[in-house]
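Bench notes, bay 3.
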Amino acid sequence: MNRFQLFIKLLHYTKKHYIAYIIGLLALIIIDVTELFIPAQTGYIIDTIKTGNAVISSVYPFLIKIMIFITIVTLFRFVWRYTLFGTARRIETEMRKKLYDKFSDLSQEFYTKNKTGDLMSYFTNDLNAIRMITGPGFLMIADFVLMTSLIIFRMITTTDLVLTLVACFPLPLISIVSMVITKKMHSLYEDKQQAFGGLSDITQESISGVRVIKSFIQYYGAQNRFNKSNEKNRDITIKTIQMEALISALVQFAIGFSFFTTLLYGGYLTTQKVISLGEFVAFYEYLILLIWPSFALGWGINIISKGLSSVKRIEALLDVKPAIFDTENAVSEVHGNDVEIKGLTFSYPHTNDSSFSLKNIHLSIDKNKITAITGRTGSGKTTFINCITRTFNPPRGTVFIGGVDILDIKLSSLRSIISVVTQDVFLFSATISENIAIGVNRGENDAIVNASKIASFHGNVEEFTEQYETIVGERGVTLSGGQKQRLTIARAIIRNSPILILDDAMSAVDIDTEKKIINNILENRKNMTTILISHRISSIINADKIIVFDEGEVKESGTHATLIRQGGLYKELYERQKIEEAIND
């Protein structure tokens, strides 16, 4: 995407705020025009005093005009600052919402390929750059073009054409050099954003994993990773500072050269009576007024370079298509909660096509029954659940719920049909009740307590001083591993979804508590479908059906008694676990 296309994209961000930009631009025009009259009044005062016959009352009208002009400038400066900078903040807020909505739509595949720190930089550096280009950046460039044009016109019409050309000679050179430097800065700012994203990711990982780092005495290793990323970010930042400093130095030189030539040639014209002393002073004040637009040009170029780099990054993100989305004819209602799998073969995206995680799976998960899935680690159990829940899309015509292909069920409906508790527990930094009641009415306190009882969590909650209003801390830091898992089970139970999936969700819970939770679920979900995934065979003995996975295939299926009689993999796993339990006892 070239720079012109990026500017067009930027206009899309601002078009709904065009009225605010028009008001701000009109206020800026009034300010710039008004400021042009002040040097002229100063010149009139000096020429009046120079005659030697002036009395103080003769300069009062000029002083009054100057105060009127200053008041007008002050009032309208407030107007443009409020409208332009306020609009930039509103655009920043709108873009933040747009980014958040986009992140919410993107599928798991996207998050497996992108790091958290880099994604967070969109909300920090990139949005700040968007705010700067739509506010201060617009102002600085508009002020440079408008103020410079007006001042040069005023210089020519009120003083001397040749003096104006001499004084303004460096300005075109600055513009040419700035355009060349800007191209270099654009790529530098892109590299800087990526480097900052990498630094943010390492910082986030180091803070989140501080317990592991300390436990395994990996402080120096983590520090080295951070230092390398920090130094890379520093090196790129220094390069951008060098470019910014070069532009600033050029502007400073141009201003200094303009003052030098003005004093030299303007002083000569004054001594030769070509212009009056008052006209020379007024011209000098016009030149002083050019200082701000000249600096604004340099700052504006920096802001635009940063902003366009961020526009490019954000647009690239917004163009990412979610892998999981509703089909055109997707249905909202599904009658029945039975799950049918027909010839499911699946491999994860961006893996070797011959490396299948699931191979030709055929099975039925009956409605209103408890179905258990077990098998060795890495046998495909979690991948199977990922396909049922559309965390990743299965091939069409392989997974059905209530007789409907899940690819033809609206995602919102599918999410309401299925509640999943995974091994990876995530809790928000909120109260216990808020964490349990996500997605339901928080006012249902009885439902919260009942779900906690089913998950064998209520007793623990009563031990806390604030009970259900206890803040669990970031990612549930104040709770034990088993308490976290039971809270998330309560969170799933309270939704009362037709299908409940527990994917090894009690790995941190002792065997007796796990059995109690499963019995509670059996008692309270008699008319619903429940899928239990567990390595502990002792916990799934009472399931209506047990499915054994191995190397991505269904090896065995049946009740506990049937599978034991078959003497296959299930019996092997069961007897091995009995020996382990006996040893532990």
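Next record in the batch:
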Amino acid sequence: MLFLRSWAPSAVAIALLAAPPARGEVHTWTGANSSLWSDPGNWAGGSPAGDANAVLVFPADAVRRDSTDDLGVATYASRIDVAGGYTLTAAPGSSLALTGDVRWIGMGGSSSVSIPVTLHGGVAHSFYAPGGLSSPWGTLVLDGGLGGSAPDSLVVQGDGGSLTVVLHGTNPFSGSVGIVQAELEVNGTLAASEVAVALDASAELRGTGSLAGNVTVAGGRLRPGTESAPGILSLDGDLSMTSGRFSVRLDGTTAGAGHDQLRVGGSSGVGGTQLEVVAGFVPAIGAVFTIVDGTGPLSGGGFASPVYTPSCLAFEVGTTATSVLLTRVAGGPPLTSVTISSAGVLTTYCNGTGGTATVTDGGGCGNAHQWGFRTVSGGAITDVAGATGPSYTVRGPDYPGPGTYFLVETTTPSGNAPTTSNELTVTVLPAAPGVATGSTTICAGQEAPLYATGGQACSWSPATGLSDPGSCDPVASPASTTTYTVTFSGACPAQNQPSATVTVVPQPSARLYAIAPCRAVDTRLPPGPLEGPALAAWESRPFPLTSACGISPAATAVAANVTVVQPGASGDLRVFPANVALPLASAVAFRAGDVRAGNAVIGLPCDGSGLVRVLNESAGSTHVVVDVVGYFE
């Protein structure tokens, strides 16, 4: 039992002096057999069934950390020790009656307790992380309900904010609750008669739920919302803040979804409390946020010593008879200068990209940026669509065509007039020459991919044997050797007409030459042309098969066994000559974790390169092994 400093109201302080409960047998969870509490084999010390003062320990080294109370009755525990990573659930009719404390013994992580817990025995209970040089820390989530009533009380205690307790759902516990060097997050309902946030800066009460009793803050922090998002915290009773901090986030203009809000059903006393405001966006001048929405009278004259983040934003704190308002006002440091610079010349083709310019603002707050250009120095500015960041990479399509332009950036501080930067000269050149690739040699009946870059649209000629003459990446399957020429169109197209030639040779007649089984490819080996690493997800890699296993350089195909090892996801392999289009048929299909093999006759390119391409058609990496037993020549 913890004996704490006299920080709390009298009811809590008296409860802290109650005698600790008697300790029973220690039952340490192992989960060796299953997740069930009724199985003695899951515990060192046997099942806690029938032990009226059981000490339940859920250590970090258990075999399994999903644990189900299936005893069907209330299990009495004098203490519960729990590490991170646990999910404690209850079968119908099962619950916990806690006559002592919950002690966090984890070094990080989170555990959830979905078992109904009742604080019992007329004593002061603690949910705590013991201090020390290696203080445990973590998050304990209770979503099965916390019950009990006075004179039982609860203290959530850590060591410098090392423990967070989160309450979800309905919690009918009506005793008093104290928070010392720890955090309590209430996202459901809590019937506690009083919640006291005490003394130290690391004590915190937050959440998006509702509390039935009074709340007293005397040195810690009160913050609506959760750790990760704004929200509304409701208090049905009175609020008394004599010191400490009240924190709100402004991420939008709507209470709850956009900004934090505290709703108070009773009276609100906030005098002498520091206000902390963290703005995740720049509100408009005049925007009003109700951060305390009260029903009863407001006393204390509002918050003292407000701190704003970012500090350049200015707000006015106002009050009504029941509420506290925050209004965005003009102010903050003036914008004294806007300068743009680049590391080199800003030159680009009209269908390409060039250098990068960066803006430096002198002062201002909540600055917005817009890049643009002038066609004559000092003239009218044309905005560049989408160029609203602190840097801009010159793109040819942003400009009307080849020529000289003058780049500028306009910075607009929140609530103040815009300022335009100095000029930088941008030179846009005519289009870069287009490129056509894909020239290769194929056997009659095969297909080869063609590629072209140089314009937004392409037109190939002749159209004979092409899958789509209007595509920049068609597939060619000519009956005879053909040279394909491409013409570019669209905004700023290349003016040249490059070409690619697909040479067609007859299908060779060949005989099979058997060889002793030989491992040609194994990606489990250190990196190399026929070795590792594993094929990444969707990776396509060429392997020079004719350089391995004595395969003839004149070979036209190989007889092989293709094996997939340790695939990270389900999929298939495609194995095909490296210079032809992707085939529809797979060499081997597999599931995640399988070792799968398939026999295949793998064609080799008719251009004599001997390159075979392997495509991993899956979302995970995989190793590939290819064993060759013969070749065709």
